[in-house]
Write a structure and sequence with these properties.
430 residues; alpha/beta; TIM Barrel; 2 domains; 9-stranded parallel sheet; 24 strands; metal-binding; N-acetylglucosamine-6-phosphate deacetylase activity; metal ion binding; EC 3.5.1.25; Metal-dep_hydrolase_composite
Length: 430
């Protein structure tokens, strides 16, 4: 038995994020890595707390989720030149390092690669729970490509991009057994206009994979066909897609769609808002990733997206191996990336943006600054919304009983004061 097994912890003097509100004069209880109902503890188990934590009026929220991160601290998840042991060690280094930024769960992200890369790396990035020993939990891999449009390849190698000429067999051949197993892949970014891709989306969704539209030249009609087929997300909105045009709004135009079919279930769909086609039913418009570094998306554009579809925003870092490190040269897949003194990352020798160096806590702060939204909305864009996207909102992104005790203490400026993962506190000084 571990030292914390069975121990009941009560958090007092906190402002809790509960049911979309900051609530005072209440308490948070957790035991064995899970948030628990105090009434059940008292009446069924006759338990009082073994430990009381004074939050000193901090805002207490769920841990942040980052569903698009390519690496950090000099590590690139798509580096298949390393040994199995080195890849596993690097995975753990990133997972542990993310905790200090409040990221308690993440989707390691792989750029477009040749099939042998996926076959080697995917089994090493399987889903696993977070802990103070292992670091942030792994929610499954986000794979960008290789079923992308070469015209919007961004920092992806064009020679590895491909079409789905043989349908779902092409996907199975590309990703290997991991696509069938369901323990590694959480999100696939695809371009729906690429030959054979649109017809495969329903089959991929039935395998429990979230389909996201990105690196695409899709018209608004093609993008809507992708959503009708089962896509529920847009990858890094405004980037690697046609710019908004008033005659054909492209993928960006999905935020204004009014004719998409109302989902039969709330699962993996945004909750309704004042801008939804129906204010009583799940929003048929997809979630959308936003990189809030002030570089990839202008603050005005962030604000426009937020007001168009507030319940769909999912804050992501799209961070590179250079995250947490000084300016210099790093790698993304087979590309060499140069980070300049302004902390902007380009494919070396070009003006092509290649991901960011921002951390998820800074994304939350920037989102609030750019949009003037509430603290609740800013935090939920990095907690509840990504959890809803992945269909795990009962265990992640919430402080409701039954959820994982991944918890952040914040001040009013949204600085991170304390971090708990699976109910155990992280030593932030390390």
């Amino acid at each position: 038995m571990s030292a914390t097994e069975g121990k009941v912890v009560k958090v007092v003097n906190a402002r809790l994020l509960l049911n979309h509100e900051i609530v005072e004069n209440t308490y948070l209880w957790f035991r064995d890595g899970k948030i628990v109902d105090p009434q059940a503890l008292f009446f069924n188990d006759h338990r009082e707390p073994d430990e009381i934590i004074d939050a000193h009026n901090a805002i207490v929220v769920p841990g942040y989720l980052d569903v698009q991160i390519n690496g950090a601290f000099g590590i690139d998840f798509a580096d298949e030149s390393l040994s199995t042991e080195e890849i596993e060690k690097n995975r753990d280094t990133v997972a542990l390092g993310l905790l200090k930024y409040g990221c308690t769960s993440f989707c390691p992200t792989l750029v477009s690669s040749a099939p042998p890369v996926y076959h080697k790396v995917l089994p090493l990035l399987r889903k696993r729970p977070g802990s103070v020993t292992n670091g942030a939990g792994i929610l499954g891999v986000h794979i960008e490509g290789p079923f992308l449009n070469p015209e919007k390849k961004g920092a992806h190698k064009e020679e590895v991009l491909r079409t789905a000429e043989h349908g779902i067999e092409t996907f199975d051949e590309t990703y290997g057994p991991a696509l069938e197993r369901g323990d590694s892949i959480a999100i696939l970014t695809v371009a729906p206009e690429v030959d054979g891709v649109l017809a495969c989306i329903p089959s991929l969704v039935t395998r429990g994979i979230c389909i996201s539209i990105g690196h695409s030249t899709a018209t608004v009609t093609e993008a809507e066909l992708g959503v009708r087929a089962g896509a529920t997300c847009i990858t890094h909105l405004f980037n690697a897609m046609h710019a908004f045009h008033h005659r054909d709004a492209g993928i960006c135009g999905l935020l204004g769609s009014t004719t998409l079919p109302i989902p039969k279930s709330q699962k993996q769909h945004p909750t309704p808002s004042a801008s939804s086609p129906s204010t009583r039913n799940p929003d048929p418009r997809p979630f959308y990733g936003l990189i809030c570094d002030g570089i990839h998306v202008h603050p005005n554009s962030v604000r426009i997206a937020y007001h168009s579809h507030p319940k769909g925003v999912v804050l992501v870092t799209d961070a590179l191996s250079s995250m947490g490190l000084p300016p210099g040269c790093y790698h993304l897949g087979e590309y060499e990336i140069e980070v300049n003194g302004d902390n902007v990352a380009y494919v070396k020798g070009t003006t092509t943006l290649a991901g960011s160096n921002i951390t998820i806590d800074r994304c939350v702060k920037n989102f609030r600054k750019f949009t003037k939204c509430s603290i609740v909305e800013a935090v939920e864009a990095a907690t509840l919304h990504p959890a809803q996207l992945l269909g795990i909102e009962k265990v992640k992104g919430t402080l409701s009983p039954g959820a994982d005790a991944d918890i952040l203490f914040l001040n009013d400026e949204l600085d991170i004061l304390r971090v708990f993962v699976a109910g155990e506190e992280v030593e932030l000084g390390k």
